[in-house]
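Project outcomes to date are best conveyed with an example. Our students and postdoctoral researchers have been running inverse folding experiments weekly, and each run begins with a structure described purely in C-alpha cells. The record below, which covers 544 residues, was selected by the lab manager from last quarter's runs and is presented without edits.
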C-alpha cells in the first residue's frame, strides 16, 4: 500500500502538522527549559506510573493532540465501547472484554454469564489444586496442557510466565500452540498420560492447529491406557462453539463457555484464562481482573489530558502521523515478562494492521506500527545498538518494577539501573566532543581519536516512555494489560478503523487448505505461480 504523506480530515490536523514542521527543540533542551517537566508529563493510574516526559512534546503539542482526540470523538467512542455498542461493525458485535472483569454484583446480561462461568471455573480449579480431579487410572492430575493458538494461547501463556512467583505447586501448567508436531511432542515427552489434563482452548473450535493438536493429544492419552469413555477425565474445553466442541468429543459438562462479544486477543479474562487460574489460583485470577477493572475505571473517567491509555495512544499517533515512526519496541525489564512483547504483537498488530476505514474506504494515513521487543537487559546485548545509532526511528516503552522480582535484591538494582540508563542514553546521546575526549583520556593518539570518535557518537534526542509497576503481581499485571488494550482501542478510533476484526489472516488459511492436498498426492493446479509449484514439488520430493 502506497502512502506518500499522512492525511487526516481532523480540523486540527493542519495545525498539528505545522506545529511539527516548526519543531526545533531537542529533548534535552525541553528538560532544561522546564524544571517541572517530569511532573508535568507523568501520571499515576490503577497502580501504574507513566513517565512520558522523554518525548518530543510540549503543552502546546498535547493541546493539539487533545483537540484531535475530541474531533475523533474519542470520549464518546470509549463510552460506546464500554456501553456495549457494536464497535466491531464488520462482524456486527460489541467488544465487551471489560464485562469480563466487572467487580461487585453483575448488572448486565453479559456480566451475569461471566459470573456463572467464574462459578463453574472455581470448583474445577480447586479440585485440581486439592488433587481431587482424578485421571482414568485414579491418580490426581499433575500436569495441565493448554492447547490453543493466538488469543487462546498468548495471553494465558504470558500471564502464567509473568506470575511464576505466585504459582501454585501443582499442577504444572504447559502450553502447546504450533502445528509443528515438535511443540506437542516436546511438551508431552516428560509427562504421564495418566496424570495429564488437556484444555482445548478455541473460541471458534475450528482452528486447524488446535484441532490437530487436540486429536494427537487424544491419541496420546488413549495410548496411555485411557478408554474412550474415560476421556472426559483428561479433556476440558473453552469455546463459544459448544456444538463443535461436543462433536469433537468433549463432554458437555467439561465445556467452559465464551461469547462472540469477546475477541480472541482480548479473552484472557474469560475462561480462556483457565491456565492462569490453575497456575495462580482463583484468588490470583480475581486480582488480575481487579487490576484490569481499575484501569477500565480510569479509562472511563479520566479526562483526555490525564487518561493514561488515551495519552499513550495520542503519543503514538503524533509520532506515526507527524514524525514517520513505524516501529514500537516493548522492553520489559523483568525476566518473567519475557512473553509480553509476543502477547502485545497479536493485541496491537492484529487489531491495528488495517488499510481501510470502518466503512471500507482506503485510509490515507499509516496505521499499525511494527511491534517487537524482548526482556531487558538481554535486548541491550542484541538490538539496542540499532536503537542508539541506527537510522530507523523506534518508539520505546520501558517497563519495570520498583520492587525486586527475585530474592536477589542486588540483581534488581542492576536491572533497574540499566532500565533507567537506557532511556537516559536515548535522551542524551554522546557528542563528538565527548567521544573524542573519552578516547584521548583513555590514551588514544589524537589521530586515532579523530578516526574513531565518529563511530562512538550517539545522536540521542530519541523518545521513550517508562512505565513502572510498584510490584509485579496479578493486580498490576491486569492493569498493565488493560492499559495496552485501551491504547489499541484509542488508536483504532484516531485512525478511523475497526480494531476488532482480523480478516487479513483468512487468505493464508484458505490457501493453506489448498496447498495441503498438493502435499498429500493431489495434482498441482495449473494456474499456480511457479514459485509455489516449485516449493510444493521440493517438499513432495523430500530432499533438495
Ligand atoms: O487466526 C487468527 C485467530 O483467529 C486469532 O484472532 C485467534 O486468537 C486465533 O486465531 C485462535 O482462534 P480460536 O480461539 O478460535 O482457535
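After processing, the design step wrote out the following sequence:
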Amino acid at each position: 500500500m502506497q502512502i506518500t504523506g499522512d492525511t487526516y480530515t481532523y480540523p486540527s490536523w493542519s495545525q498539528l502538522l505545522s506545529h511539527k514542521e516548526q519543531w526545533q527543540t531537542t529533548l534535552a533542551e525541553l528538560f532544561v527549559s522546564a524544571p517541572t517537566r517530569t511532573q508535568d508529563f507523568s501520571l499515576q493510574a490503577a497502580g501504574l506510573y507513566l513517565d512520558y516526559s522523554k518525548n518530543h512534546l510540549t503543552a502546546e503539542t498535547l493541546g493539539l493532540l487533545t483537540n484531535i482526540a475530541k474531533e475523533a470523538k474519542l470520549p464518546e467512542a470509549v463510552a460506546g465501547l464500554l456501553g456495549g455498542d457494536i464497535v466491531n461493525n464488520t462482524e456486527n458485535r460489541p467488544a465487551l472484554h471489560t464485562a469480563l472483569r466487572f467487580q461487585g454484583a453483575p448488572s448486565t446480561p453479559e456480566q451475569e454469564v461471566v459470573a456463572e462461568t467464574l462459578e463453574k471455573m472455581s470448583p474445577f480449579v480447586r479440585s485440581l489444586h486439592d488433587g481431587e480431579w482424578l485421571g482414568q487410572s485414579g491418580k490426581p492430575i499433575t500436569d495441565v496442557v493448554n492447547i490453543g493458538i493466538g488469543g487462546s494461547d498468548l495471553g494465558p501463556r504470558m500471564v502464567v510466565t509473568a506470575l511464576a512467583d505466585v504459582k501454585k505447586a501443582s499442577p504444572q501448567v504447559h502450553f502447546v500452540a504450533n502445528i509443528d508436531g515438535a511443540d506437542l511432542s516436546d511438551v508431552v515427552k516428560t509427562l504421564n498420560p495418566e496424570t495429564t489434563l488437556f484444555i482445548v482452548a478455541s473460541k471458534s473450535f475450528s482452528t486447524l492447529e488446535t484441532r490437530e493438536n487436540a486429536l494427537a493429544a487424544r491419541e496420546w492419552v488413549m495410548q496411555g491406557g485411557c478408554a474412550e469413555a474415560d476421556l472426559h477425565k483428561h479433556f476440558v474445553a473453552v469455546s463459544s462453539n459448544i456444538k463443535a466442541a461436543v462433536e469433537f468429543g468433549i463432554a458437555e459438562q467439561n465445556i467452559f463457555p465464551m461469547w462472540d462479544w469477546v475477541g480472541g486477543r482480548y479473552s484472557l479474562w474469560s475462561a480462556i484464562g483457565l491456565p492462569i487460574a490453575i497456575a495462580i489460583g482463583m484468588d490470583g485470577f480475581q486480582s488480575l481482573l481487579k487490576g484490569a477493572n481499575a484501569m477500565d475505571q480510569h479509562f472511563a473517567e479520566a479526562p483526555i489530558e490525564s487518561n493514561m491509555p488515551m495519552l499513550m495512544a495520542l503519543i503514538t499517533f503524533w509520532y506515526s502521523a507527524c514524525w514517520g515512526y513505524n516501529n514500537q519496541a516493548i522492553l520489559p525489564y523483568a525476566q518473567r515478562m519475557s512473553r509480553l512483547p509476543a502477547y502485545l504483537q497479536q493485541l496491537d498488530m492484529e487489531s491495528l494492521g488495517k488499510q481501510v476505514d470502518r466503512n471500507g474506504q482506503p485510509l490515507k494515513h499509516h496505521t499499525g506500527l511494527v511491534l517487537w521487543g524482548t526482556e531487558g537487559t538481554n535486548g541491550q546485548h542484541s538490538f539496542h545498538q540499532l536503537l542508539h545509532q541506527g537510522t530507523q526511528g523506534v518508539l520505546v516503552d520501558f517497563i519495570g518494577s520498583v520492587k525486586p522480582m527475585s530474592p536477589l535484591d542486588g540483581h534488581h538494582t542492576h536491572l533497574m539501573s540499566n532500565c533507567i540508563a537506557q532511556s537516559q542514553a536515548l535522551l542524551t546521546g554522546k557528542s563528538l566532543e565527548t567521544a573524542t575526549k573519552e578516547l584521548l583520556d583513555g590514551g588514544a593518539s589524537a589521530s586515532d581519536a579523530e578516526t574513531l570518535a565518529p563511530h562512538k557518537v550517539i545522536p540521542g534526542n530519541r523518545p521513550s516512555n517508562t512505565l513502572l509497576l510498584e510490584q509485579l503481581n496479578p493486580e498490576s499485571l491486569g492493569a498493565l494489560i488493560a492499559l495496552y488494550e485501551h491504547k489499541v482501542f484509542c488508536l483504532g478510533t484516531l485512525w478511523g478503523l475497526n480494531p476488532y476484526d482480523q480478516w487479513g489472516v483468512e487468505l493464508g488459511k484458505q490457501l493453506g487448505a489448498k496447498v495441503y492436498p498438493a502435499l498429500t498426492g493431489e495434482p498441482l493446479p495449473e494456474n499456480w505461480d511457479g514459485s509455489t509449484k516449485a516449493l510444493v514439488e521440493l517438499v513432495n520430493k523430500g530432499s533438495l
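Residues 327 and 357 are 21 Å apart (CA to CA). The radius of gyration is 26 Å. The training component of this project remains on track.
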